[in-house]
From TrEMBL:
It holds the Pfam family Amino_oxidase. It comes from Amantichitinum ursilacus. InterPro entries: Amino_oxidase, FAD/NAD-bd_sf. This is Amine oxidase domain-containing protein. Residues 16-481 form the Amine oxidase domain. It comes from the Bacteria.
């Protein structure tokens, strides 16, 4: 079916919205594609923020996917740079070959980067995910290890019969003691509510394939090999990939280039256009209404098809005539978790046995460090030097850190003035022994609304809401906030791809879109 005379309105210029725009324009030259973005930035939470020449990746974005389509799509936009024709990415004891270009554009390419994420707890570093090895035993001590194993055995012998919450989900798989040690406090730091109030569905989506039984088997096998030698090393299941692709100047570089291509193919991007209404006639959206903040006026955009990445709570509230009272109530009860990143530029980290050798700034090797310490609010720490050296203005002599705080709009953290928050964040790094305050050079505070759709509030009634919204034949919900689902960047792109295919084929069945990020095939770990 030709769509060249139809008007497609896309709400949001993040990965899902821009993927949809480019795929539509590639498939149907001359199609009318309009992208409405409420901010002045490209990339949504996958944008790159430039502060005094030091670039911040909000939340950390690895460019790796189990989808061949996504991997190829990224490399069409920004090729991987390398010395030969091929590079090999290793992950989960597997390898994946990717084409590389030695002569790639000096500015526009992707780097092949090593991955290391660890947990910082009890002022010590643990493997992420936690592994049953000598480092873990030393850090936790034999008494706590014994309690963890006994608790795990109890959970396997007498599991909770009806998993109603995330707490039930984790205890059944790891035992109460490990849940209390490594899961409970950090999860509640992230979400701001008790684990008993979070749907078990979140665990089913985000915690895959980790097994204490297999960890114990692997540890025993390693001990046997160390003592007696011989034997084949068994493959270890892990949720880590050991290498990934990464744009030279951060994730925003990918989406800025995509936006350029959208414009070159005839698409229109409107910034500072916040969508506040969707007019419908029966089961079809006929127009999208947005406020142009720069001109201070409302504008109606006629629409034959609409692809939305805006938060569902706001989307449903803006539909006129409104959906039924039940759908409105459920949508109004959807909740979100907000996010603050503090960029802290330091001369050096405090020296430790984990510091990389031959570095004047005592650099740690990690991309991410999950801060499990109970005496600080800090949730996660990024070391931007290790994502790409080009993110740091003076990479040789400074360390550029991203301190990540999970909060809710209006709470004490969110309302704290930026100068106070910056001082507070520095003090927390000093408190847990990672820096000396005298080494702090500069920094900035960035707030991100609705970074994480929450699996509590009215979420347990979400299927009823979805059924109502899906009855609007020409409205397609994609992306993280669009679907109120904890999608990764590649999942968001795949939902956009399927929405485009539906539009091109005249198919209003959205089941395949909602299947993304549900089945194991979409996850790194299995």
């Amino acid at each position: 079916m030709s769509t060249s005379n139809r008007k497609i309105v896309i709400i949001g210029a993040g990965p899902a919205g821009l993927t949809a725009a480019l795929e539509l324009l590639r498939a149907e030259p001359g199609i009318h594609v309009t992208v409405l973005e409420s901010s002045g930035d490209i990339g949504g939470i996958s944008k790159t923020i430039n502060y005094q020449g030091n670039r911040m990746d909000i939340g950390g974005h690895r460019f790796f996917s189990k989808s061949d389509w996504v991997m190829n799509w990224w490399q069409q936009i920004l090729p991987a740079k390398g010395d030969g024709d091929q590079a090999v990415i290793s992950y989960q004891n597997k390898t994946r070959s990717i084409p590389t270009q030695g002569g790639a554009d000096a500015e526009r390419h992707m780097l092949l980067r090593p991955r290391l994420s660890r947990i910082y707890f009890l002022r010590s570093f643990f493997d992420y995910p936690v592994k049953m090895n000598l480092n873990t035993v030393r850090n936790l001590g034999p008494v706590r290890i014994a309690r963890i194993l006994a608790s795990y055995a109890k959970a396997r012998l007498a599991p909770i019969k009806h998993e109603k919450s995330l707490e039930d989900f984790i205890i059944n798989r790891f035992g109460r003691e490990l849940y209390l040690t490594f899961f409970k406090d950090y999860t509640e730091k992230v979400w701001g509510v008790p684990c008993q109030e979070i749907s078990s569905e979140w665990g089913a989506q985000r915690i895959k394939g980790l097994s204490i039984t297999e960890a114990i088997k692997h540890a025993a096998n390693q001990i046997r090999k160390n003592l007696f030698g011989g034997g084949q090393q068994q493959a270890v299941k892990t949720s880590l990939i050991e290498q990934f692709l990464y744009p030279r100047l951060g994730p925003g570089q990918m989406w800025e280039v995509v936006a350029e291509q959208v414009r070159q193919l005839g698409g229109t991007l409107h910034f500072h256009h916040k969508v506040w209404g969707l007019q419908r006639d029966g089961d079809k959206i006929t127009a999208v209404q947005a406020h142009d903040a720069q001109a201070n006026q409302n504008i109606d955009f006629a629409a034959d098809e609409v692809i939305s990445t805006m938060p569902m709570r706001e989307l449903v509230a803006g539909i006129q005539p409104p959906l039924n009272a039940e759908a409105q109530r459920i949508a109004a009860g959807l909740q979100y978790r907000d996010f603050i990143t503090v960029g802290v530029l330091v001369r050096k980290l405090r020296h430790s046995k984990h510091s990389l050798p031959d570095t004047a700034n005592n650099l740690l090797p990690d991309n991410w460090i999950y801060i499990q310490e109970r005496d600080v609010k800090l949730g996660r720490l990024q070391i931007f030097n290790n994502w790409s050296p080009y993110l740091v203005a003076d990479e040789a002599n400074t360390v550029w850190l991203g301190l990540e705080y999970f909060c809710s709009e209006g709470d004490a953290l969110w309302q704290m003035p930026s100068d106070q928050f910056f001082a507070f964040a520095q003090d927390e790094l000093v408190k847990i022994g990672l820096i000396d305050k005298a080494d702090v050079l500069d920094g900035t505070v960035v707030k991100v609304e609705k970074a994480y759709p929450a699996y509590f509030g009215s979420y347990n009634e979400f299927d009823t809401l979805r059924e109502q919204v899906d009855q609007l034949r020409n409205l397609y919900l994609v992306g993280r906030n669009g679907m109120h689902r904890y999608n990764n960047q590649d999942h968001s792109m795949l939902t956009a791809k399927l929405a485009v295919e539906n539009i091109l084929r005249g198919n209003s069945d959205k089941a395949a879109i909602w299947a993304i990020n549900i089945d194991d095939e979409y996850h790194e770990e299995k």
